[in-house]
Design a protein that fits this description.
The radius of gyration is 19 Å and the shape is elongated. The protein is built from no helices and 8 strands. A hairpin with a 4-residue loop joins β5 and β6. By secondary structure, the chain is mostly beta strands. The protein has a domain of 71 residues. The strands form 2 sheets. Strands 2-1-5-6 form a 4-stranded antiparallel sheet, with no helix packed on it.
């Protein structure tokens, strides 16, 4: 079994392995730079699983920023029947694509 880790970033948790790409919320790191994800909740070396309380002290996952992009547009529309009242707002999430280098 491969080594993996569970990391938290942007208020979400992701299960990551070395070599895979991941789409997370925008990081303030420029394209091509490496960053460390230090909020590691769990880590497995392939044989044993280590679970933090809530984080594992000293553990980190190294990732490289591949690209910054924006997600698909999500439209929120509210309408009150027979009142002529309507509200439409759109949102596009800022995203960063990272490649996991090491766990």
């Amino acid at each position: 079994m491969e080594a993996y880790a569970v990391v938290e970033t942007g208020g979400k948790q992701y299960r990551v392995q070395a070599g895979e790409s991941l789409e997370i919320e925008r990081l303030a790191v420029e394209k091509g730079a490496q960053t460390d994800l230090t909020s590691v909740l769990a880590r497995s070396d392939g044989a044993a699983l280590t679970v933090g309380t809530p984080m594992i002290a000293g553990a980190k996952v190294t990732a490289e920023v591949v690209e910054h992009k924006r997600g698909v547009k999500v439209v929120a529309f509210k309408k009150r029947k027979r009142k002529g009242s309507r509200r439409k707002v759109g949102h596009r999430q800022e995203l960063t694509i990272v490649k996991i280098l090491s766990v």
